[in-house]
């Protein structure tokens, strides 16, 4: 962090600032008096806006007063959900490689995470359902997965969702879907977008689940609206879980800030055009990086369908931390070592391509030169 001139592709956020119209909405909300506590579950107006969001984007009807809770970030939504589901001594299954916070929250709840790595099939990541079946014990309570995935970019398709729901129902588990990256979805661009239409989305598990299923979706404003520093998220789930999570919110953060929530409403209302432009830019960045990495001997990169990461497997890099450190010190390119993302991550590195093209061009050139000189 103290080095100068580093090409920082290890961060999990876009380099784009929060759009001006969202910042102006927060300023207006402060002037209008939204500087006090809100309800633990969030402003009713934001929960209503989120219900409209799901109706328009996913054709899912939600009760905003009982099935949605606003949180102070996506990670806080994840913490609320997991802490409501696990007792000390319980176990949770996590599909990995994955953002490590989910497994860490399970450990903070005095429960044990069991990591099941994705497998490669036909050059793409897939779920190892046989390994999932073997991982279930009498103490297993939840299954956590991320779609689109950080760090893989993998997206759960319709068949995947059906099988995950069936698995959770048969074993009486909570199914927790981290869908924070759902709007960063590239196959959605295959067809031209109509003027004013939503910018597309990865399929939500809520389209498949009934409102009585033990399913919780974790969400955030951070990625789609470039609001990482605002700490604003939400969760959608069964009414009993949302009620308990709203109560627990009191003892963790009380509530998300009122002016941030009002800014979130504005993001939902007016953010589609900027989101469309950002996703087009990210897809171009992805394709550029793939074109360079695909020509480097010893580098294998499954094509991601979502998020803004490439998870590149490096031949012979049995210690991804050491590889990343050497790349940093010798070439001043910062990547995230795959070992940080749990089982199945070793031997790979995560590359965030949500940066300016000149940065990516120089970083890719340096990675290519470093690999060729090994």
Present the secondary structure layout:
Elements: E1 7-8, H1 20-31, H2 44-58, E2 68-71, H3 74-85, E3 91-96, H4 101-108, E4 112-117, E5 119-121, E6 124-126, H5 129-135, E7 140-146, H6 158-170, E8 174-178, E9 215-220, E10 233-237, H7 239-252, H8 258-270, H9 272-293, E11 299-300, E12 309-314, H10 320-331, E13 333-334, E14 336-337, E15 348-352, H11 357-372
Parallel strand pairs: 1-13, 3-4, 3-7, 7-8, 8-9
Antiparallel strand pairs: 2-10, 5-6, 9-10, 11-12, 12-15, 14-15
Helix pairs in contact: 1-8, 2-8, 3-4, 3-7, 9-11
Overall mean pLDDT: 96
- Give the percentage of residues in beta strands: 15-25%
CATH top-level class of the largest domain: Alpha Beta
Q: Quick one: biggest sheet? A: 7 strands, mixed
- How many domain regions? 2
Question: Kindly, what is the distance between the CA atoms of the first and last residues, rounded to a whole number of angstroms?
Answer: 25 Å
Overall spatial form? globular
Structural class: alpha/beta
Low-confidence spans: none
Q: Which sequence of SSEs, written as H and E, runs from N to C? A: EHHEHEHEEEHEHEEEHHHEEHEEEH
| CATH fold category name of the largest domain | Aspartate Aminotransferase, domain 2
- Number of E strands: 15
Please explain how this structure is put together.
The chain is α/β, with parallel strands linked by helices. The protein has two domains: 7-17 and 273-372, Aspartate Aminotransferase, domain 1 (Alpha-Beta Complex), CATH 3.90.1150.10; 20-271, Aspartate Aminotransferase, domain 2 (3-Layer(aba) Sandwich). 39% of the residues lie in helices and 17% in strands. It has eleven helices and 15 strands. The chain has helices spanning 20-31, 44-58, 74-85, 101-108, 129-135, 158-170, 239-252, 258-270, 272-293, 320-331, 357-372; strands at 7-8, 68-71, 91-96, 112-117, 119-121, 124-126, 140-146, 174-178, 215-220, 233-237, 299-300, 309-314, 333-334, 336-337, 348-352. The strands form four sheets. The chain has a seven-stranded mixed beta sheet with strand order 2-10-9-8-7-3-4, sandwiched between helices. Helix 9 runs parallel beside helix 11 (357-372). The protein is globular and about 60 Å long. The two termini are 25 Å apart.
